[in-house]
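Subject: Flavodoxin-like domain-containing protein structure
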Amino acid sequence: MVFMAKLLIAYFSKSGTTRARAEQIARVTGGDLFEIKTEKAYPQSYAGTVIVGKKEQLTGELPKLIGRVGDFAAYDRVALGFPVWWFTCPQAVVSFLSQYDFSGKTVWPFCTHGGSGPRGSAGKIRAHCAGDVKDCLDANKLTDEGVAEWLKTE
């Protein structure tokens, strides 16, 4: 499988599940990892996180992020990972999208979830991203072969 040299794997992960999928994608592709981190910490409990995540969605809050991708313009392709919160991507992902110009880039969203699947995630990302956004991959049971098939060069 041939991959373009400049693949960024950007991910937001609260519990580590999405991080594990991002690391798998990086191992298979040789892409560069970048963790999307918020200034504020989310509650430890699942219930607390659900409440905060819903409030962020309802109010349109964009959490402040820590760190920036070095030389973002050099990347042609971005794999964008996140857990599904309230049937879509968390607002931290929207914050990330708002910080960069995705024009001319291809974005491959991938998600982990507790059973809801990707749902409206790709649509929400498309609404906040000027790049070519592909459908969201359900990465809960992602295999190395699945990574290769998902990101294959056309």
